[in-house]
Design a protein that fits this description.
With 226 residues, the protein is an alpha/beta fold. The protein is built from six helices and 14 strands. It has helices spanning 36-45, 66-73, 147-156, 181-187, 196-203, 214-221, and strands spanning 2-8, 13-19, 25-29, 49-54, 76-80, 90-92, 97-100, 103-109, 118-122, 125-127, 132-133, 136-137, 166-168, 179-180. Helix 3 (147-156) packs across helix 5 (196-203). The two termini are 31 Å apart. 43% of the residues are buried.
Amino acid sequence: MIFKQLFDTKSSTYTYLISSGNGREALIIDPVIENVAEYISLLKSLNLKLVKVIDTHIHADHVTGASKLKNITKCSTIMGEHTPAEAVEIKVKDDEIIDLDNLKIRAMYTPGHTSDSYSFLMDNYLFSGDTLLINGTGRTDFQNGNPKDAYNSIFNKLLKLPDETLLYPAHDYKGEMVSTIGKERKFNPRLQVNSVDEYIDIMNNLKLKKPIEIEKNVSKNIKLGG
């Protein structure tokens, strides 16, 4: 299997490229529009054919490269069925399987950061979008975010996965690249709560600034960056 984790320094976004092997079909998760040329170069160097692009949710801090990649490679665009992006070709349901050669990726509806947030599980690789971060969790104060939904997504879905499940988030701001479900359950400060009400109270009092270009980015991302 080919697995590449790519980082956008401006938005601290992780993008993931997956394939079953050289010369095979490939999939990209959460592409950033400014980095499309880098993705294309990497695909060519590995002799890969990009067939699918997934966005975990409508991002607020960067513009997706989904449409640009589709225009170049003719790949299919994928998001969860709760997305407001009408331009998406394939809208997957909770628990639906996405096939990539002999790889199978399960869609998991994990709202809370936004109402359209999905995570994606491939074997023991969890691509959690902004729902569960390394030593943190996604904010819940815009784009129909909801701390109660986030709690349910994290505690009743993601933390039910095996401890050894590898956690690959859509963002990290401190240079962390990967964690595990077991490690996050034990040490993630946001998860050391005794009730849903305690979690809601934490999330409702973060007092975070909104992303500088949120309105522009969201409006572009609803059109898949096109």
